[in-house]
Amino acid sequence: MTTLITDTYFGWDPLTHTATCPNPTWDAAEVRRSEGVRPGSTAAEHHTCTHAICTHADTFGRVELRLLCRDCDTVYVISGEALTEVCTHTSLTGWGQPPARVGEVWLWPGRPSIPGGEPREYLVTRQAATVTRETLYGLITRYRDAAGTPLWIAGAVPDPDGAHQVSILRWRYASRGLTTLKEAAAWVADAELAPVQPLVVAV
After folding, report:
1. 9-37: per-residue pLDDT in tens?
2. DSSP assignments along 109-172, one per residue
3. How many Å separate Cα 93 from the centre of its chain?
4. CA distance 29 to 8
5. pTM of the entire structure?
Protein backbone atom coordinates (compact mmCIF):
# COMPACT_ATOMS: atom_id res chain seq x y z
CA MET A 1 0.00 0.00 0.00
CA THR A 2 1.34 3.42 -0.98
CA THR A 3 1.03 6.13 1.64
CA LEU A 4 1.32 9.75 0.55
CA ILE A 5 3.68 11.83 2.64
CA THR A 6 0.88 14.36 3.17
CA ASP A 7 -1.23 11.58 4.75
CA THR A 8 1.71 10.72 7.00
CA TYR A 9 2.00 14.22 8.44
CA PHE A 10 -1.30 16.05 7.90
CA GLY A 11 -4.89 15.42 8.98
CA TRP A 12 -4.02 14.09 12.45
CA ASP A 13 -5.52 15.94 15.41
CA PRO A 14 -3.60 15.99 18.71
CA LEU A 15 -5.35 14.80 21.85
CA THR A 16 -5.55 17.90 24.00
CA HIS A 17 -4.85 18.38 27.70
CA THR A 18 -6.32 21.06 29.93
CA ALA A 19 -5.32 24.61 29.05
CA THR A 20 -3.29 24.89 32.26
CA CYS A 21 -1.51 21.52 32.03
CA PRO A 22 2.16 22.13 32.98
CA ASN A 23 3.45 19.07 31.13
CA PRO A 24 1.19 18.04 28.22
CA THR A 25 2.53 14.53 27.66
CA TRP A 26 0.85 11.18 28.17
CA ASP A 27 2.17 9.21 31.14
CA ALA A 28 0.31 5.99 30.37
CA ALA A 29 -0.97 4.47 27.13
CA GLU A 30 -2.69 1.11 27.57
CA VAL A 31 -4.68 -1.11 25.25
CA ARG A 32 -7.34 -3.73 26.05
CA ARG A 33 -8.76 -6.33 23.70
CA SER A 34 -12.11 -7.94 24.48
CA GLU A 35 -15.18 -9.43 22.89
CA GLY A 36 -18.33 -7.36 22.74
CA VAL A 37 -21.91 -8.64 22.41
CA ARG A 38 -24.31 -6.84 20.11
CA PRO A 39 -27.64 -5.66 21.58
CA GLY A 40 -30.39 -8.19 20.95
CA SER A 41 -28.00 -10.96 19.90
CA THR A 42 -29.45 -13.31 22.53
CA ALA A 43 -32.85 -13.25 20.82
CA ALA A 44 -34.01 -15.87 18.33
CA GLU A 45 -32.89 -13.75 15.39
CA HIS A 46 -29.13 -13.48 15.33
CA HIS A 47 -27.11 -10.56 13.98
CA THR A 48 -25.69 -11.77 10.67
CA CYS A 49 -24.61 -10.37 7.36
CA THR A 50 -24.80 -12.20 4.06
CA HIS A 51 -21.77 -10.51 2.53
CA ALA A 52 -18.89 -12.96 2.26
CA ILE A 53 -16.20 -10.65 3.64
CA CYS A 54 -18.28 -9.11 6.43
CA THR A 55 -17.48 -10.24 9.96
CA HIS A 56 -20.79 -9.14 11.47
CA ALA A 57 -22.06 -11.65 13.98
CA ASP A 58 -23.55 -11.72 17.48
CA THR A 59 -20.17 -10.82 18.94
CA PHE A 60 -17.31 -8.65 17.71
CA GLY A 61 -13.69 -7.96 18.53
CA ARG A 62 -13.25 -4.71 20.43
CA VAL A 63 -10.10 -2.70 21.02
CA GLU A 64 -9.89 0.07 23.61
CA LEU A 65 -7.02 2.51 24.02
CA ARG A 66 -6.70 4.74 27.06
CA LEU A 67 -4.26 7.55 27.74
CA LEU A 68 -3.58 9.34 31.01
CA CYS A 69 -1.88 12.61 31.88
CA ARG A 70 -1.11 12.75 35.59
CA ASP A 71 -0.30 16.46 35.50
CA CYS A 72 -3.80 17.58 34.49
CA ASP A 73 -5.69 14.33 35.22
CA THR A 74 -6.98 14.11 31.65
CA VAL A 75 -8.03 10.63 30.47
CA TYR A 76 -8.90 9.63 26.92
CA VAL A 77 -10.61 6.31 26.12
CA ILE A 78 -10.81 5.43 22.43
CA SER A 79 -12.58 2.27 21.32
CA GLY A 80 -13.73 0.70 18.10
CA GLU A 81 -14.88 -2.48 16.45
CA ALA A 82 -12.45 -4.73 14.58
CA LEU A 83 -9.63 -2.19 14.57
CA THR A 84 -6.41 -2.93 12.74
CA GLU A 85 -3.38 -2.86 15.01
CA VAL A 86 0.15 -2.41 13.69
CA CYS A 87 3.31 -2.23 15.76
CA THR A 88 6.06 -0.77 13.63
CA HIS A 89 9.13 1.49 13.80
CA THR A 90 9.81 5.09 12.83
CA SER A 91 12.36 3.87 10.28
CA LEU A 92 9.44 2.28 8.39
CA THR A 93 6.90 5.08 8.76
CA GLY A 94 9.05 8.20 8.42
CA TRP A 95 6.73 9.88 10.91
CA GLY A 96 8.28 10.03 14.37
CA GLN A 97 11.81 10.63 13.16
CA PRO A 98 13.42 14.00 13.90
CA PRO A 99 13.90 16.28 10.90
CA ALA A 100 17.36 16.53 9.35
CA ARG A 101 18.90 19.93 8.75
CA VAL A 102 20.29 20.23 5.25
CA GLY A 103 21.71 23.67 4.62
CA GLU A 104 19.13 26.29 5.56
CA VAL A 105 16.08 24.02 5.67
CA TRP A 106 14.77 21.03 7.59
CA LEU A 107 13.71 17.79 5.90
CA TRP A 108 10.94 15.60 7.33
CA PRO A 109 11.13 12.06 5.92
CA GLY A 110 8.33 10.03 4.40
CA ARG A 111 8.19 6.26 4.16
CA PRO A 112 11.20 4.47 2.68
CA SER A 113 10.61 2.77 -0.63
CA ILE A 114 11.75 -0.52 0.90
CA PRO A 115 12.56 -1.49 4.50
CA GLY A 116 16.02 -0.19 5.30
CA GLY A 117 16.00 2.10 2.29
CA GLU A 118 15.96 5.86 1.99
CA PRO A 119 12.71 7.84 1.88
CA ARG A 120 11.58 8.89 -1.58
CA GLU A 121 9.88 12.06 -0.35
CA TYR A 122 10.59 14.79 2.19
CA LEU A 123 8.52 17.71 3.43
CA VAL A 124 10.54 20.88 3.93
CA THR A 125 10.25 23.57 6.60
CA ARG A 126 12.44 26.51 7.55
CA GLN A 127 12.50 25.54 11.24
CA ALA A 128 12.73 22.31 13.22
CA ALA A 129 9.83 22.93 15.61
CA THR A 130 7.09 21.08 13.74
CA VAL A 131 5.67 20.46 10.30
CA THR A 132 2.10 21.58 9.66
CA ARG A 133 0.28 22.93 6.64
CA GLU A 134 1.10 26.39 7.98
CA THR A 135 4.87 25.77 8.34
CA LEU A 136 5.25 23.69 5.17
CA TYR A 137 7.61 25.45 2.76
CA GLY A 138 8.52 22.81 0.21
CA LEU A 139 8.52 19.19 -0.88
CA ILE A 140 11.25 17.05 -2.42
CA THR A 141 10.48 13.81 -4.24
CA ARG A 142 12.59 11.26 -6.08
CA TYR A 143 11.86 9.86 -9.53
CA ARG A 144 13.63 8.25 -12.48
CA ASP A 145 13.91 9.89 -15.87
CA ALA A 146 13.38 8.15 -19.21
CA ALA A 147 16.91 6.75 -19.05
CA GLY A 148 16.35 5.31 -15.58
CA THR A 149 18.57 7.87 -13.86
CA PRO A 150 17.43 8.66 -10.27
CA LEU A 151 16.79 12.37 -9.83
CA TRP A 152 15.12 14.70 -7.32
CA ILE A 153 12.50 17.33 -8.07
CA ALA A 154 11.39 19.98 -5.60
CA GLY A 155 8.51 22.38 -5.14
CA ALA A 156 8.65 25.50 -3.00
CA VAL A 157 6.04 27.86 -1.51
CA PRO A 158 2.73 25.95 -1.43
CA ASP A 159 0.04 27.72 -3.42
CA PRO A 160 -3.31 26.13 -4.38
CA ASP A 161 -3.23 28.29 -7.53
CA GLY A 162 0.44 27.67 -8.22
CA ALA A 163 1.60 26.86 -11.72
CA HIS A 164 3.52 23.72 -10.72
CA GLN A 165 2.43 20.39 -9.29
CA VAL A 166 4.93 18.21 -7.42
CA SER A 167 3.50 15.08 -5.81
CA ILE A 168 -0.15 15.94 -5.02
CA LEU A 169 0.40 19.60 -4.06
CA ARG A 170 0.69 22.74 -6.14
CA TRP A 171 3.63 25.11 -5.74
CA ARG A 172 4.65 28.59 -6.77
CA TYR A 173 8.07 27.31 -7.83
CA ALA A 174 9.34 23.96 -9.10
CA SER A 175 12.85 22.77 -9.88
CA ARG A 176 14.27 20.84 -12.77
CA GLY A 177 15.64 17.36 -12.11
CA LEU A 178 18.42 17.58 -9.53
CA THR A 179 21.16 15.06 -8.90
CA THR A 180 21.31 14.93 -5.09
CA LEU A 181 19.03 15.49 -2.12
CA LYS A 182 21.43 18.16 -0.84
CA GLU A 183 21.14 20.02 -4.13
CA ALA A 184 17.35 19.83 -3.95
CA ALA A 185 17.32 21.16 -0.38
CA ALA A 186 19.54 24.07 -1.41
CA TRP A 187 17.22 24.83 -4.32
CA VAL A 188 14.18 24.97 -2.00
CA ALA A 189 16.03 27.28 0.41
CA ASP A 190 16.80 29.75 -2.40
CA ALA A 191 13.70 29.31 -4.56
CA GLU A 192 12.19 32.72 -3.78
CA LEU A 193 15.51 34.47 -4.32
CA ALA A 194 16.34 32.91 -7.68
CA PRO A 195 15.89 35.15 -10.71
CA VAL A 196 12.77 34.44 -12.72
CA GLN A 197 13.55 33.25 -16.23
CA PRO A 198 11.73 35.35 -18.82
CA LEU A 199 9.12 33.61 -20.95
CA VAL A 200 10.23 33.62 -24.58
CA VAL A 201 7.53 33.14 -27.20
CA ALA A 202 8.51 32.42 -30.78
CA VAL A 203 6.39 34.18 -33.39
Report:
1. 998 888 899 999 999 998 888 888 777 66
2. E--BSSTTS-BSEEEEESSSS---TTT--EEEEEEE-TT--EEEEEEEEE-TT-SEEETTEEEE
3. 8
4. 21
5. 0.76
